[in-house]
Amino acid sequence: MVSARSLSTATMLPSPAQLLRNRIQQFHQRIGGRHWFPHVPLAILLGLGGFWLLQNDLGRHWRHIADQLLNGGQGLHPALLPPILIGLGMLIMAIGLLFRSRLAWLMALLLAATAAISMYFGQHSHAHLLIGYFILMLALLVFAWRQFDRTSVTASTLFALTSVVMLLVYATFGTFYLGSEFHPKVTDLVTALYYAMVTMSTVGYGDITPQTTEAKLFAVSIIVLGVAVFATSLTAVIAPLVTRSLQRIVNRRDKRMQRENHFIVIGNTPLAINTWRELARRGHAVTRLLRQEPETGIPDDVDKLIGEPSDGDVLRKAGADKAQAVLAMLDDDSENAFVVLAVRELAGKARTVAAVNDANHLGRVQLVQPDVVIAPQILGGELAAMLLTGEQVTADFVMKRVFQQPANPPSGSAA
Predict the structure, then answer these.
(1) DSSP-assigned beta bridge partners for residue 183
(2) Which of 71, 87, 107, 353 could bridge to 50 as Cys pair (CB 3.0-4.6 Å)?
(3) What is the C-alpha separation between 8 and 22, in angstroms, rounded?
(4) How far apart are CA 172 and CA 292, in angstroms?
(5) How many angstroms separate the CA atoms of 228 and 195, rounded?
(6) Among 287, 297, 296, residue whose Cα is nearest residue 319
(7) Phi-psi category of residue 303: left, alpha or beta, with phi > 0 → left and psi -120 to 50 → alpha
(8) One domain, residues 352 and 223
(9) How far apart are the C-alpha atoms of 96 and 90, rounded to whole Å?
(10) From CA 63, how far away is CA 330, in angstroms rounded?
(11) 224 with 300, same domain?
(12) Cβ of 401: how many Cβ atoms within 10 Å?
C-alpha cells in the first residue's frame, strides 16, 4: 500500500516560482521568442535612442545642418559633431544587433555609455530623460549579453564601415575647424578631407603641416586612431571568415551521424551514462546532450552536443523533433521536467522519459506528463527495507516501482 507520505508527494503542487518560470517558458516558446527575443527589441530600442539623440540636438534644423555640411561646413558648431556621430552609430549598430553579433553588442554598449556621459556633461534639453534611457539601455544590454554570441561577417562589416566613417568625419571636421593653425591654412572641407586621408593612412606628403601645439596633438590623435581603427576593422572582417573556414575543415573530419529515429540521452549522471552505453551496445543510434564538456572528455566516435538541455534550439539541433525518445536524466528533477516541456513544444514524435532523483519531487515531475517516469534511486531504499523485513519482491513490483506511471495514478492502491 502507498503510504500517506507517498500520497502527499504525489499530489504536491509546484511552488509559485516554478509555476511562473514554467508559464514564462511555455509562453516564450509559443510565441516563437527564440527567433526574435531579445535581439529585436534591443535593436529597436537602440535605434530609437539614436533617433532621439539626433532629434534632441538637431531638432527641426537638421535640414539646415545638412545643407551646411554639403556647402563646406561654414557656420556649423563643432559641439554638434559628437551627438551626430553617436546617433548615427547607434542606428547602424542596431542593424548589427539583429544578427546577434557580439561585436555589434559591444559597440552598442560603448555608444550607450558615451551617449549617457555626453548628456551628463553637455548642455542638452531633456538631458535627464536621455541619461535615464541610455542607462536603462546599458542595463538591458548587459543582462542579455549571452544572447549575442555570433561572429557575423555582415555585422563586422558594419562595424568596420562605421568606425572608418566616424574617424573620417572626426579627422575632416577637426582639420577644418583648426584650419588656421596649419600651413598653408585649410579653408575648405575638400582640403580637410585630403589632409585627413593622408594622415590617417600615415602617408604624410608634408604639403600641409600643423603649426601649433593643438594642431600637432590633433594630428597625433588622427595617426593613432587611424592605425587602431584600420587594424581593428580588418581583424573584425577577416576573423569570422577565417573562423568559418576552420570550422568547415573541422566539420569535414567530424562525420556526425544523421540525427533521425535515434535516442537522445541528456545528462552526465551514472544513470545517463549507463543508459547511453547500453543503448549503443544494442546497436541503436544515440546522441548525448550535455550542458558542458566532462573533465574526462568524450570519445570522438560518440555523437554529442554541448548546450542548454531545455533550450528549444539546442533540442532541435540534437534532433529531438525526429528522435524516437528523449531521456532527461539530469541531477536536478526540475530541469528534467523543463526538458519534457521543451520537447513537447517541438511537436515531434519522440517519447519523453524523465528521471526522478528525489521522492519529494515525484508528484511535480508527473505534472508535466512525461511518457515514462523512471525512478531507480527511489526504489533502492524500498527494496532494501523489503528484503530486510522478509517481504516478497516480484518482478512485476520492481517494474512498477522503477517506471512510475505519470498519468492517472491510483489514489489508494500500490503504484
Answers:
(1) 209
(2) 87
(3) 22
(4) 50
(5) 18
(6) 287
(7) beta
(8) no
(9) 10
(10) 62
(11) no
(12) 17
> Is 287 part of a structural domain of the chain?
yes
Number of domains in the chain: 2
- pLDDT category, 414, cuts 50, 70, 90? very low
Statement to judge: residues 263 and 231 lie in one domain: no
Number of residues assigned to the chain: 415
Q: What's residue 240's pLDDT?
A: 66
Paired residues of 196 in beta bridges: none
pLDDT value of residue 41 = 92
Cβ contact 77:162 at 8 Å? no
Predicted local distance difference test score (pLDDT) of residue 324? 92
Domain holding 366: CATH number?
3.40.50.720
Diameter of the chain measured on Cα atoms? 107
Please say which residue of 204, 225, 251 terminates a domain.
251
Domain limit, last residue, from 251, 278, 303: 251
Tell me which residue range forms the domain holding 178.
Answer: 32-251
The CA distances from residue 135 to 37, 51, 91, 97, 112, in Å, are 20, 16, 17, 18, 7
Q: Do 280 and 151 belong to one domain?
A: no
Q: In what order do the strands lie in the sheet with 372-374?
A: 303-306, 286-290, 263-266, 325-328, 351-355, 372-374, 403-404
Q: What's the whole-number mean pLDDT along residues 150-176? A: 78
Record the cell numbers describing residue 314, joined without a space.
539546442
- 181-225 residue pLDDT tens: 999 999 888 899 899 999 988 888 889 999 999 889 888 888 888
Worst-scoring range by mean pLDDT, 1-10, 167-176, 305-314, 402-411? 1-10
> CA-to-CA distance for 107 and 88, rounded, in angstroms?
12
Mean pLDDT of the chain: 79
Q: Is 297 left (phi over 0), alpha (psi -120 to 50) or beta?
A: left
Query: What pLDDT sits at residue 172?
Result: 87
Is residue 193 within 8 A of residue 222, CB to CB? The reply is no
Pair (185, 216) in one structural domain: yes
DSSP 326: E
Kindly indicate the confidence band of residue 290, based on its pLDDT and cuts at 50, 70 and 90: very high
How far CA 222 is from CA of 32, 140, 165, 204, 225, in Å, comes to 47, 33, 13, 12, 5
Helical pair 39-58 and 81-97, crossing angle rounded to 10 deg:
160
218/287 same-domain check: no
Using the Cα atoms of residue 325, residue 327, residue 333 and residue 338 in order, give the sign of their dihedral.
negative
pLDDT at 44 (0 to 100): 94
DSSP letter string over 372-398? EEE-HHHHHHHHHHHHHHT----HHHH
